[in-house]
Amino acid sequence: MFETILKVAMVIISVALIILCLLQSGKSDDIVNALTGQSSNLFAEQKERGVDLVMSRMTMILSIAFFVIAILLRMN
């Protein structure tokens, strides 16, 4: 029973992680600008705010939960 609950939670967390990663804004423009020599704010202090901050924290929390559940499933 406990293993079934963990498997369902793993699927739900996996889908949520995929959706969150796809919804986050891309940060590759800064890297491209730094490599090509264009003006960039790569090393400037830019804080995440609002929705970006919430999505970043949710991604971190869900990824930690994903690894914990993966370890628990492997132990059973």
Automatic annotation (TrEMBL):
<dbReference type="GO" id="GO:0009306">
    <property type="term" value="P:protein secretion"/>
</dbReference>
<keyword id="KW-0811">Translocation</keyword>
<comment type="similarity">
    <text>Belongs to the SecG family.</text>
</comment>
<keyword id="KW-0813">Transport</keyword>
<dbReference type="GO" id="GO:0005886">
    <property type="term" value="C:plasma membrane"/>
</dbReference>
<dbReference type="GO" id="GO:0043952">
    <property type="term" value="P:protein transport by the Sec complex"/>
</dbReference>
<keyword id="KW-1133">Transmembrane helix</keyword>
<dbReference type="Pfam" id="PF03840">
    <property type="entry name" value="SecG"/>
</dbReference>
<keyword id="KW-0812">Transmembrane</keyword>
<comment type="function">
    <text>Involved in protein export. Participates in an early event of protein translocation.</text>
</comment>
<protein>
    <recommendedName>
        <fullName>Protein-export membrane protein SecG</fullName>
    </recommendedName>
</protein>
<keyword id="KW-1003">Cell membrane</keyword>
<keyword id="KW-0653">Protein transport</keyword>
<keyword id="KW-0472">Membrane</keyword>
<feature type="transmembrane region" description="Helical">
    <location>
        <begin position="54"/>
        <end position="73"/>
    </location>
</feature>
<dbReference type="InterPro" id="IPR004692">
    <property type="entry name" value="SecG"/>
</dbReference>
<dbReference type="GO" id="GO:0065002">
    <property type="term" value="P:intracellular protein transmembrane transport"/>
</dbReference>
<dbReference type="GO" id="GO:0015450">
    <property type="term" value="F:protein-transporting ATPase activity"/>
</dbReference>
